[in-house]
Each structure stands twice: as C-alpha cells, then as structure tokens.
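Pilot study result, target chain (279 residues):
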Amino acid sequence: MKALLAVLTLLASTAQAGEFFDDFSQPDLATLQAQGWKLREGTGHPGVAGSRFGREQLSLGQGLLRLTLKTDGDYARTQLAQLCAARKFLVGTTTARVRLRDTATPDPVVQSFFLAGPLRFDFDPEFSEVDFEYLPHGGWGNPARRLYGVAWQTVRLEPWLAHNHAVERFGSHDGWQLLTVQVEPGRTRHYVNGELLREAEGRTVPTVPMAISFSHWLAAGAQAGPAREHAFEVDWVLHVADRSLPPAEMEARVQQLRAQGLKQTDTVPDRGLTSECNL
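Predicted structure:
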C-alpha cells in the first residue's frame, strides 16, 4: 500500500511539473506541424552532400510516427527525415519509445533521438546536445552494429572535429527500445530500457535550451545499387521539466496520460527561441 501511495504521489507531482507529451496520433502532418513540430526540408548537416531532408519522408499511422530514408547510393537521390519540437527543453527527463530497425542492406544509416541547441559557429562554447544514435550497419570507420549515447561539449563541422563524451552499446537493437536522457545542472545520464548506459559531468552538460528531435539520415559509404528504403518508428515522447525521473516512472506517466485520454499535452513554458532543426 505504501509503495502504491508513493507512486500515486509521484505521478501527481509529475502532472504539476511542466511536461511535454506526444503519442503521434495526429491524423496528418499538417496537424503535427500546427501543434508545434518543425518538419525539416532542404540540405545540410548531418546529411551527406547532395542528400535532402523532406517532409514527405515523415508519415503518421496507427499511432506511430514513421521516419523513412530512401537511397540508391547516389546522394543526389537520397532523401532523409527529421522533425524537431520547440527549443525550450533543458533540465529534466526526456524519454521516447522507438522501434529501431536493422536493415536488409548494409547502408550506413543513422536512426537518432536527441535534444540539441544551435551551433552558432565553430567550437561554440554554448553548444548543447545529448543524443542516441543507432548504427545498424556500423559507420564512421567501424563496421560494428551499435547504439551510441553521446553528450556533446562542442564541434566544428568542416573539417570535422568533435569534443564529446560517447559510450557505445554493441549488438543489435532491432525492436522497441525505451530511450531516456536526464539532464541536471551538473550531469547527464543516458538509459536504455531502464539500464544506465552512461553518466557524464563537466563541459558536456547542456547549458542552453534544446529542441527534442528525431532524425533518420545516411552517413558516407553507401553503395550504388537499386533504390531501397529504411524506416524506424516512434510511439511516444515525454519530457518532464526540472526532475530526474527513472525510466519506469516516465513510462508509468505515459500510461496515466493515455488512461486519461490525453494524446498530446504541453505545459513547458515557451522561451521565445527559434528551433533551427538543422543538426
């Protein structure tokens, strides 16, 4: 009984904190966009030169968001997917339930869930990003299949030079995964299905508000061949501001919101910042 009361008290206090929740049950992309999501279009990092991001690579159905990547190995015919929420998230806990996918062909795709602020210039000291990146066929000089958890200090895009703290979880992660990031004033933590993957302190801790983002992009090294497509899905995302909550409690909060019939809610104050959606 005491344990139940503790959980109910926690869920009540979570409801009072600023929170952002979306279960991607919108009928169409226009509604998704009207509710504050930015659907990326055009070229730019991290897509390889010639590839493009397009809203047509995003779709909704059966309560899922689907991000599809298409390529035939020619980067001029490679289409990528990304969307970003408002840039207003910093201290707190963010969890997403995503279905990562191994691929039938060895394309160096990257399936990503992350929070990021702008990179104003090379080695911007205020650059803030925490992310998960799944490489089902390896990449970046390492063929191993793996999931990254990364906290960034800063970066220069051209020529590439990054300062970050990364940890790798090797092996297949095909299937549904619960990915959680906690950001505190002095540290960050990454969890995979409730298991602590990494904790970092110091200069890799975010310092400016970030946008919650999902992307599906192609790294260098794809082989020319027939046209093919790869996809991964997102079931829901939840952010609770100013609190470090265990993944199980984030999942319990989603169940409570769904039991109340809530499909989207956003009580995190707007900061009046532009979500660039270009990383």
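One observation from the pilot: Confidence is low (pLDDT under 50) at residues 1-12. A full batch analysis is planned for the follow-on phase.
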